[in-house]
Write a structure and sequence with these properties.
The complex is a heterodimer of chains A (about 110) and B (about 120).
Chain A (H helix, E strand, L loop, with lengths): L8 E5 L4 E6 L8 E7 L6 E6 L4 E2 L4 E4 L5 E6 L8 E8 L13 E6 L1
Parallel strand pairs in A: 1-9
Antiparallel strand pairs in A: 2-7, 3-4, 3-8, 5-6, 6-7, 8-9
Chain B lengths: L3 E4 L2 E4 L5 E7 L5 E7 L5 E9 L2 E4 L6 E3 L9 E3 L8 E8 L12 E2 L3 E5 L1
Parallel strand pairs in B: 2-11
Antiparallel strand pairs in B: 1-3, 3-8, 4-5, 4-9, 5-6, 7-8, 9-10, 9-11
The chains are: A mainly beta (about 110), B mainly beta (about 120).
């Protein structure tokens, strides 16, 4: 599986956009980029995923660079409830989707 | 739909005791997973199942056993509890694990916090 690199922590003011970067320079052509988040002590929550194209849903946008070596998760209007650990995961294509969670980015949204 | 449910929420065990962590999903998902999360760390895969009657080891299977007799249930068994198994345990499920992305999204339960003393 491709390895991902994320900053350990970030701050964001409430109401502003939160841009969380992820580096996955060894990603292969058939691997997806997934983003999950974990709000304190709860189970991880799926946010979004993508292969090549940028993606948007009701929670966030995912921007993947053309060479696919990095991506950015965008929370357009962060709220205090978005304070969480955000995991960028590159999924291995195989018989089971075994997600490898690193330590993620701890996003702190402040007033 | 309740999604993925786990019981119990909390448990304290003595060294050498046994217990079963229960996990049930009502989304008719084929794939189910067990992860553990130690303080300040990411999740590590213990076991997974691609369907009833089929299970396989993940990254950290030692000290655990699983079975999958139905699509809905995927219990995790600790036979001889050790302090190293103190952790938060998460169960998850997905429709498939084909690697095609869209049907691989994993849905997690609320977790079981286990302490072994």
């Amino acid at each position: 599986d491709a390895k991902t690199t994320q900053p350990p922590s970030m701050d964001c003011a409430e109401g502003r956009a939160a841009n969380l970067p992820c580096n996955h320079s060894t990603i292969s052509g058939n691997e997806y980029v997934y983003w999950y988040r974990q709000i304190h002590s709860q189970g991880p929550q799926y946010i979004i995923h993508g292969l090549k194209n940028n993606e948007t849903n009701e929670m966030a946008s995912l921007i993947i660079t053309e060479d696919r070596k990095s991506s950015t998760l965008i929370l357009p209007h962060a709220t205090l409830r978005d304070t969480a650990v955000y995991y960028c995961i590159v999924a291995h294509t195989g018989t089971a989707s075994k997600l490898t969670f690193g330590t993620g980015t701890r996003l702190q949204v402040t007033l | 739909n309740a999604g993925v449910t786990q019981t119990p929420k909390f448990r304290i065990l003595k060294i050498g005791q046994s217990m079963t962590l229960q996990c049930t999903q009502d989304m008719n998902h084929n794939y189910m997973y067990w992860y553990r999360q130690d303080p300040g760390m990411g999740l590590k895969l213990i076991y997974y199942s691609v369907g009833a009657g089929i299970t396989d080891k993940g990254e950290v299977p030692n000290g655990y056993n699983v079975s999958r007799s139905t699509t809905e249930d995927f219990p995790l068994r600790l036979e001889l509890a050790a302090p190293s198994q103190t952790s938060v345990y998460f169960c998850a499920s997905s429709y498939s694990g084909s690697g095609r992305g869209d049907t691989d999204t994993q849905y997690f339960g609320p977790g079981t916090r286990l302490t072994v003393l």
